[in-house]
Amino acid sequence: MADFISSLKSKFDDSTVLTDAQDMSKYVTDWPGKMTGKALAVVRPTSTEDVAAMVKLAFETGTPIVPQGGNTSVAGGSIPDDSGAAIVLSLERMNKILEISPAAMTMTVEAGCVLETLQNTVEEQDLFFPLNFGAKGSCMIGGNLATNAGGQNVVRYGNTRELCLGIEAVLPDGRIINLLSGLRKDNTGYDLRDLFIGSEGTLGVITAATMKLFHLPKARATSYAVVPDISRGLELLNRAQAETGGAVEAFELIPRVFLELVQKHAPQHHIPFENIPELCVLIEIAATSDAEAVVGEDGVLPISAKLEKILESGFEDGLVLDAVIASSEAQRREMWEMREGALEVVTAAGTRVGFDISLPLDQVHGFVDEMTQRAEAIMPNLKMCHMGHLGDGNLHYSVFPPEGESEAFLANADAIKTAVYGSISDFGGSFSAEHGIGTTKLYAMTNYKDPVALAVMQQIKATLDPKGIMNPGKLLP
Ligand SMILES: Cc1cc2nc3c(=O)[nH]c(=O)nc-3n(C[C@H](O)[C@H](O)[C@H](O)COP(=O)(O)OP(=O)(O)OC[C@H]3O[C@@H](n4cnc5c(N)ncnc54)[C@H](O)[C@@H]3O)c2cc1C
Fold first, then answer.
1. Is 133 in the pocket of ligand 1 (CB under 6 A)?
2. Is any ligand 1 atom within 6 A of the Cβ of residue 68?
3. Which of 84, 106, 177, 461 is the most exposed place for a label (fewest CB within 10 A)?
4. Which residue in 245, 263, 243 sits closest to 254, CA to CA?
5. Where do the DSSP E strands lie in 113-241?
6. CATH architecture of 219-342
7. Which architecture, in CATH terms, is 97-215?
8. Is the pTM of this model over 0.90?
9. Is 149 in the pocket of ligand 1 (CB under 6 A)?
10. Would the CB of 110 count as within 6 Å of ligand 1?
């Protein structure tokens, strides 16, 4: 270990190799602040060649590497264990935008670019990068790729995998693999790019990527609509998709339990209904054409009129019980702030068992009903919060204890997990929708992933990373 550190220090300066405990502390603690590890050093390369040299040195000495972007992982994937044997390889100083091509509608960027910086930079050129979620001010594109992040716009644009055209990565032995291409068609064998997306740092270090861009919406119409139940919420979604030619940008499910937590823990957010509804959806549609995005002579914004019409027809058919449409950008922001602050709100609520699950859209309602019954049999009066990205079938499902019963609840936590994972399996869902496996879902990976798929993953890992130095203990049991 001493040799490894002195070799690193002989090649790189003090701002690149951190070994002081104080300097390393923010890199070894996870976002929720619940897990802390120890690192041999934190290295902060500024080029792909630096990454390659560092990884080669780690390969030769068998030193484990934990790649890190914005360290916003909520699955424990981005921090080292407490052995102190691993280095954290932070991409934060590799934050250059290498190219934006409005003609090809692509951007090529280094892995350490912060998501929000990318969004803002392309917006200056009337372009749109649609990946979006609460951690956008800190998370980085390399981390987004490594976790195949989702967020609120997946219903229209897909998750990070679908937004990526090419990747550059450093393999566990220090070789640079250049798959950095803007091609939309390239049938030249196995798609190795896709191996790195969602690999959570276990197969190599992503150093750059070419990502798709879209036309910047010129206007958006946003509403909170109260729906009678999840199935009718989905009918509303499909109606909106048909009426807009697939222009639904977001369709988020928000139950009463969450709104009550907002009242209690985040009163700064404005709940747009006088009486808290049982269930509502946050729906947003967008327009890129002037025909829909410019206020007409009648003073009406066509895209808003369209949303109003959809909601009105939903009201007539019993799909919508009440609705509030944002009448200004400020009101729209206010609506989104409550949604984007969701993780902070549920975290502030204290003891809970949380899940990031996905289901086929037509199974979401059945799962939620089934879980309500199963949970009641485990412990009466549990509070179930089934909020999430309903448009793509992803629920951030949390189970909270009845008031004052945290201890008894924790004793039942394993039974709750087993019930949720079991139900997910029965309904054809996945136990990890967008946050990844990290360390927190290894149990589910062992017990609920198809065993053959898991064995093939282990074989791929052993081939690319024979010494097992890339993010050991993460993703694969
Ligand atoms: C408030 C909040 C809201 C969130 N909302 C969402 C959401 O809606 N949808 C969603 O999908 N996620 C969400 N997340 C989770 C998290 O932000 C994402 O997983 C994000 O993509 C992680 O990016 P990061 O740069 O912070 O990566 P990190 O946390 O640093 O790392 C995550 C994983 O990727 C690996 N990794 C990081 N960079 C690289 C690289 N360059 N090469 C190889 N491996 C690498 C790490 O080793 C680790 O396993 C949220 C998190 C927070 C805190």
1. yes
2. yes
3. 84
4. 263
5. 127-128, 164-170, 176-179, 205-212, 214-215, 219-226
6. 2-Layer Sandwich (3.30)
7. 2-Layer Sandwich (3.30)
8. yes
9. yes
10. no
